[in-house]
Design brief:
This protein is an alpha/beta fold. The chain is built from eleven helices and 14 strands. Helix content is 57%, strand content 14%. The strands form three sheets. The protein has a five-stranded parallel β-sheet with strand order 6-5-7-8-9, sandwiched between helices. It has a five-stranded antiparallel β-sheet with strand order 11-10-14-13-12, covered by helices on one side. The two termini are 83 Å apart. InterPro entries: CheY-like_superfamily, Sig_transdc_resp-reg_receiver, WalR-like.
């Protein structure tokens, strides 16, 4: 039976190698596989079935079809395939057929060079021989799967061994498919088509997953930022002074990684606060001179948020992340609205407290004045009573020296006694006045005591709420 030496995609029957179009040395290198037709005229090699044609003794000019048929595929994009095989002949056969189908190929003679090329060029598909010198195909695939540049590249094993154990070993190291020689060209191209579609779907799913993950991260981040703002709103109810308001606001903005300056205007006074501890004169001028009618005043990475009683300068807005930038600008009006409301509440409380103190002071003064008035009235009554008694005594003594008739003297003394008695009766009404003054004084004392208790209870409740909120900070669970 005649022998056939494969050369490229054309062979001629011959008894010697002299019919090969290349020199014998070149032919020995390139034409590595010797094939023979079987009894039915089918030519076979270690690569698989090549062609079936009649008796080769008569058809000296007949050509053998290539191992992989030249066939148009549905893959319109340029697909890069890396062939890792120590057999140069197999490399050329597969490369030319894939090139005819519109695929781009690159070859490697051993596992180490194949890994290096895969890392550098990152092909779309790797065809990997199992039995190679040095590291075998299983070790190559295992290393490819451990490298971040190549871990997602589909790998197809090409092997003449197809037992279940060998297939399982291939899948265990991360192969995507396993083709056993001999195989049809259409079969290989179909597998490549399937793997490319699978890779495209996996890539699309990965992109969707990343988008969904990014959306979830944005949603979680936004929810966390909103939770921080709500926590500040809850705590702001317990703040009892401007220092606590500023510190609470800065605690929230620090969690947002922001540096801020706060201006509070209350009772015609300006109160300055900074999350960094110091405020430059330029920052004060920027806040004082900006347009208060505008809610936001943006310049570069800085933003000023204005409210009637408060203005906040943010010195490092995240311009590199516009989604976060927008979320923060949505949250700042909520935070500053709570600050502005609390400032008004504290100002009202301060005014009411001041008014209460003034009222207590007035009540105390009235109470003291009434006490002194009642005391003066009582002293004057006693003094007047004594004066009248002295007057009666003096008149009686003088009338004895005036030489009046007895009836005249009695008449005058009677008139004087009647007048003195009436005056004494009028002065005795001072006791009633004293009792009235005592009642008024007692009532004022009760009002003052109750008012002082009310003010003290209010101050104590404010301090207690502030302490409780501070103690509860560690137990707050932000969603």
């Amino acid at each position: 039976m005649p022998r056939y030496w494969i050369w490229s995609f054309s062979c001629r029957p011959a008894a010697t190698r002299s019919v090969c179009r290349r020199k014998p040395s070149s032919c020995n290198r390139l034409c590595a596989d010797l094939v023979r037709p079987d009894s039915r005229g089918t030519v076979r090699s270690s690569l698989g079935r090549i062609n079936r044609y009649p008796s080769t003794e008569r058809g000296a000019s007949n050509r053998i079809r290539p191992l992989i048929c030249r066939r148009k595929t549905s893959m319109s994009d340029k697909i890069n395939v890396l062939i890792i095989d120590d057999d140069r002949f197999v490399q050329k056969l597969i490369s030319k057929t894939l090139a005819a189908s519109g695929l781009s190929t690159r070859t490697a003679d051993d596992g180490e060079s194949g890994i290096a090329i895969a890392q550098q060029e990152q092909p779309d598909l790797i065809l990997l021989d199992v039995e190679m010198p040095g590291i075998n195909g299983y070790e190559v695939c295992d290393r490819l799967r451990s490298l971040p540049e190549t871990q997602d590249i589909p790998v197809v094993f090409l092997s003449s061994h197809g037992t279940l154990r060998e297939r399982l070993q291939g899948y265990e190291v991360g192969a995507d498919d396993y083709l056993v020689k001999p195989f049809e060209a259409e079969h290989l191209l179909a597998r490549i088509n399937v793997l490319m579609r699978y890779g495209a779907e996996r890539k699309e799913l990965s992109q969707r997953y990343q988008q969904a993950q990014q959306t979830a991260i944005i949603a979680i981040t936004g929810t966390s930022e909103l939770a921080q703002a709500m926590h500040f709103l809850e705590k702001s109810l317990s703040y009892s002074n401007f220092d606590e308001i500023a510190q609470g606001l800065f605690n929230t903005t620090t969690r947002f990684s922001l540096e801020c300056v706060l201006l509070i205007s209350a009772n015609d006074e300006l109160h300055w606060f900074s999350s960094q501890g110091s405020i430059s004169p330029l920052e004060k001028e920027l806040i004082e001179m900006n347009d208060k009618e505008s809610r936001f005043f943006d310049f570069g990475a800085r933003t000023i948020i204005n409210f009637p009683q408060a203005s906040l300068l943010v010195k490092n807005m995240p311009l590199e992340d516009m989604d976060r930038y927008g979320r923060l600008k949505d949250l700042f009006p909520i935070l500053l609205s709570a600050v502005n409301t609390k400032i008004n509440v504290l100002a009202t409380q301060a005014a009411l407290t001041q008014q209460n103190h003034e009222l207590l002071r007035s009540f105390s003064q009235i109470r003291g004045s009434l006490y002194h008035l009642a005391k003066t009235i009582l002293v004057n009554r006693d003094h007047s009573n004594k004066l009248l008694q002295d007057l009666v005594h003096d008149i009686s003594y003088d009338m004895m020296r005036m030489g009046l008739e007895e009836d005249q003297e009695e008449y005058l003394l009677h008139r004087i006694d009647s007048a003195i008695e009436e005056a004494m009766q009028q002065m005795d009404a001072g006791q009633e006045i004293s009792e009235v003054f005592y009642t008024i004084n007692h009532n004022l004392k009760s009002v003052i005591s109750n008012q002082e208790s009310l003010v003290q209870a209010f101050i104590s409740s404010q301090a207690s709420e502030s302490t409780e909120q501070s103690e509860d900070d560690s137990g707050i669970e932000l969603f």
